[in-house]
Specification:
Elements: H1 3-12, H2 17-30, E1 38-45, E2 48-55, H3 56-72, H4 80-91, H5 94-105, E3 110-117, E4 120-126
């Protein structure tokens, strides 16, 4: 029975509101949603290909680990690159990364980024 049929029965008085809610909830439980499980990154530079597949469950942990590791590098051993990375990582709240990963988990397989410039091609998608 479709939701519209349930609402019509409710409108005609054939069922009460509690029955209608129960029927609609029962229908919702049957639906299975597709979930993204991996972040797939394909990089092609000329003839070289670099495919990378990262489980979404590791993204949040990887982010937190990178923040911890960059802090362990003493300031006198850093050059420009780690300092830039450190400044960027410090500005990103770990709760925002957790929310982003949760949103990606509940999305269907979906292409996120496709960039092609000359012989370089980058494709990032949720699978």
């Amino acid at each position: 029975m479709e939701n519209i049929d349930i609402l019509r029965k409710l409108d005609k008085g054939q069922i009460d509101i509690d029955e209608a809610i129960a029927l609609i909830k029962k229908r919702q439980k049957r639906k299975k949603t597709a979930k993204g499980r991996f972040l797939k990154i394909n990089i092609r530079n000329g003839e070289k290909r670099f495919p990378v597949i990262i489980p979404l469950c590791l993204l949040n942990s990887g982010f937190l680990l990178s923040k911890a590791v960059i802090r362990l590098i003493s300031k006198d051993k850093r050059n420009e690159k780690p300092d830039d990375i450190f400044r960027v990582l410090e500005k990103i709240d770990s709760r925002d990364i957790a929310r982003l990963v949760d949103a990606l988990r509940y999305s269907k397989p979906y292409p996120l980024v496709k960039v092609e410039e000359g012989s370089t091609f980058v494709d990032i998608s949720i699978i």
